[in-house]
Amino acid sequence: MSERPPHLPDALYKASDSLKALGWPEEDLTATADEGAGFYPLRLGETLDDGRFVITRKLGWGGYSTVWLARDRKDNRHVAIKVLSAFASREIKAGRLAELELLRKATSASPNHRGSVRVIRLLHEFTFESFAGQHVCLVTDVLSYDVPGLQSQLKDPRLPLASILRLTKHVLKGLEYLHDECKVVHSDLKPGNILLLPSDVNDIVMHELAENPATFYEFPKTIPPDELPFHPVFSAPLIFHLDTSKESSLRWVIADLGHAHPHGKYLSKTVQPYALRAPEVNISLEWGPAIDIWSLGCMMYELATDRWLFRPEVMGDIPRDIVHLAQMAQFTGQCHDDVASEQYEIQEKQHDLKSMLKRAAEGSAVSTPIKFYLNESAVFSNGADEVSTFVRIMRSFLALDPAKRPRAVKALLDPAFMNVL
Q1: Can you tell me the mean pLDDT for 170-190?
Q2: Which residues contribute to the annotated binding site?
Q3: Closest CA relative to residue 350, chosen from 324, 321, 375
Q4: Residue positions forming the annotated binding site for ATP
Q5: How many angstroms separate the CA atoms of 308 and 274, rounded?
Q6: What domains are defined for the chain?
Q7: Which positions in this protein are listed as binding ATP (predicted)?
Q8: What stretch of H or E contains 241?
Q9: d(CA 187, CA 190)
Q10: pTM
Q11: Using CA atoms, how far apart are residues 153 and 36, in angstroms rounded to an integer?
């Protein structure tokens, strides 16, 4: 990893007030690293890493990075390059973000393990300096649709249960690898972080670049170049024709280890998207790999019904987290562990958790266990036996006690997965 060259000043670029006021449709190109950003505005055709990579398309962006399609001149292939913001790169160097360390581990821990191909892998890494600061760059395989992207291409966003079980099996294999071989908790498992790895990447890339070339956002043409030095590029994920008759060729991969944690070295107490958050995280207790299994159970319901399983709101003097816990008990038909509840009361200086849970349950419109919400009419073209099997697996992932949730390796032994490719 390169250090900052001595000719680069510590005082970095600061945008004018008029440029900041324009409003940025994707990442804010005017915000600095000190403001939690520091994005570099790559240009189409620009080269990186001493000319090895040529930028051809913007694939996406997030809070800490942008992702670009590039041609690798050395290995003669297409790759994806995740360019971290100057802020995120600084956090990695300081040890407060573990993404690079964990990507290295996920790539090298046990490459022959059956689950290694279900987790994004690091092909190469490099850094470069810009006006915004130093940027860590992670080179990976090119991925296509995430789950929401796939759903947007379908007439009915509810996925067939057989398709969800296939996705679930792929994710479980990835989690088995992360949990048991890499000793990593993903902690941010959600539909947007599960992506398809196409088998014919080169064909898809060439078709997309020809038929749907990269485009720029339109800004007022009256702004002179010295006031608008950036040309924001539209994010355009790679898409391809979905042939449902060849679904067995689709491979799901767990992506984005930006919020992952090594076992026993948890960098944040608050993890997981709120709707997918496990009860032990919700009540600030010790957590581990079982939170990923909980998130997967929530996702199964969401993909089958196109609805979040939990939608808690503040209820009078009852906090949202308590309403969330009450909904968990109602939907799953289980009770929260007394010992865990007592730990929460001591830690949060609450002495009436059970009372609040009872009042939240009484005031909630939800009072029916999950099995009554998943039936033949609620999901996409499935019979009673398929629904029953699906609910059984999902309920096992949604055990309120994390010790009772199956580990990924054990969940894969379920007979329902035997004939799933």
Answers
A1: 97
A2: 82
A3: 321
A4: 82
A5: 11
A6: 1-142+199-237 (3.30.200.20), 146-198+243-421 (1.10.510.10)
A7: 82
A8: none
A9: 9
A10: 0.86
A11: 34
